[in-house]
Amino acid sequence: YDSGRDGYIDLMELKLMMEKLGAPQTHLGLKNMIKEVDEDFDGKLSFREVRVAMGAKGAGELEEDSGLMTLAKLSEIDVSIEGVKGAKNFFEAKVQALSSASKFEAEIKAEQDERKREEEERRHRRAAFRELKSAFSQ
């Protein structure tokens, strides 16, 4: 989810992550999620801060209705129930779902780029036609 590749999850990356996980949050809710575990007050989450949040969930320190609790529940798996293979399948399914979403987004982007290219070609053809038309009009 670190689309900026800077080693942090910022507000917009957290927003996208929560939406993809099927638990969208309000802007204020997202800010509160960051604020709850942002140890260095930089307004973004480091890997360490996310680990601390997941540890807080295990220790029962997160509020039940908080966004972080929702995130923790969406990303947890009980290995004692599912077993190691179940955990492996869970995480592989998550990766597959994310890559499928990325492929879908890439297809949409490609279609948009194609439409822009076609529109640009139309403009060039119209300009060339007008130029030829003006040559015959003189």
From TrEMBL:
Residues 1-24, 25-60 form the EF-hand domain. It comes from the Eukaryota. One of its GO terms (cellular component) is mitochondrial inner membrane. The keyword Repeat applies. Keywords: Calcium, Metal-binding, Repeat. Residues 108-138 are annotated as: Disordered. InterPro entries: EF-hand-dom_pair, EF_hand_dom, EFHD1/2. One of its GO terms (molecular function) is calcium ion sensor activity. This is EF-hand domain-containing protein D1. It comes from Struthio camelus australis.
